[in-house]
Amino acid sequence: MTIPRKIATAVTLILACAACTPATGAAAAGTLDQNQYVYTDSELTISSGGSEGQTFTAGRTGQLDRVDLFLRKFGAPSAPLTVELRDVSAGAPGGTVMSSGTIPASAVPDVADLRAFLPVSVNAQVTAGAQYSIVAFSNTAPGYYYWSAATGNPYAGGASFHNTNSYGGAPWTSAGYTGIDFTFRTYVASATVTGTPGAGAHKKCKKKKHHAGAAKKKCKKKHRHH
C-alpha cells in the first residue's frame, strides 16, 4: 500500500520554543533531553495501513517520563494514537514495550498550520548513551494521523522506520528515504540518589576516637547541615 506523504520542497523551518508549547493539561515532565525540533513540509502517515518509528539515543540517565510528537490529522480518525517507548533491536524498533500512552483524536489539530507538539506520559528507566525507540500506531480508518519529519538527517542519534501494519509490529524498514528523522522530544528526570545525606560523615565522626561524648554530637550536628 502506498503511504501518503508530503515531500519537502521548501527550506527547512526551525521552530521557536514558544511555538512548541505542549497541549494544556500535559503532565509535568523531567528535563528536556532529546529534541529533534526541525521539520520541513514532510509528513508520514499513521493509520490502519502503517505504523512509524524513530530511534534515539538517551543523553541522560534517569526516568524518561514524557515524549512529545509533532502531529496533525487528516479526515476524522476513529481511534486514538498509541505511542510506545521500546528497546532497539538490530538498529530498528524492538519488540519490548517499556511504556506506552495514547493521544485522543480530539487533541490532534486537523490543519497543517496548526501542527503541534502533543505530549504522552510514559515511565521507563533509560541510560545515557543507550538507544531506544518511539513507535506510533493507530488502527484508524477512515482518516489518519500525520507525524511531521525532516530530511537531511537532522538527528544524528537515530533514524526513522516504517512498517505496513497497524500495531507497530515487525518487520521495520527505512521510512522511505535516507536521512529522514521525525520531529520529537523526550524528557528525563534525574536518577534518584539513594542513601542518607551526610551518612558518610556521621560514620567518620563515629570512627574518630577523640570524638567522644559532646564532641561526637557536635561533629554530627556540623555534618548534618552540609
Characterise the protein shown here:
The chain is mainly beta and 226 residues long. It is built from 2 helices and 16 strands. It has helices spanning 199-207, 214-224; strands at 5-6, 13-14, 31-36, 38-39, 42-46, 51-57, 62-74, 81-89, 92-103, 116-126, 131-137, 144-150, 160-163, 173-174, 181-182, 184-190. The strands form 3 sheets. Strands 1, 3, 5, 7, 10, 12, 15 and 16 form an 8-stranded antiparallel sheet that branches. A 6-stranded antiparallel sheet has the order 9-8-11-6-13-14, with no helix packed on it. A hairpin with a 2-residue loop joins strand 8 and strand 9 (92-103). Helix 1 runs antiparallel to helix 2. The chain is globular and about 40 Å long. The relative contact order is 0.25. Mean pLDDT is 79; it is low at 1-26, 193-211 and 220-226.
Number of strands: 16
Output the number of helix runs: 2
Structural class by sheet pairing and helices = mainly beta
The CA-CA distance between the termini, in Å, is 64 Å
- Percentage beta strand: 35-45%
What would you report as the Rg, rounded to the nearest angstrom? 23 Å
SSE string, helix = H, strand = E?
A: EEEEEEEEEEEEEEEEHH
Principal-axis shape: globular
Helix content range: under 10%
* Nearest-integer average pLDDT: 79
The main β sheet shows up as:
8 strands, antiparallel
List unreliable stretches of 5+ residues.
1-26, 193-211, 220-226
List keywords for this structure.
mainly beta; 226 residues; 6-stranded antiparallel β-sheet; 43% strand; 8-stranded antiparallel β-sheet; single chain; globular; disordered C terminus; disordered N terminus
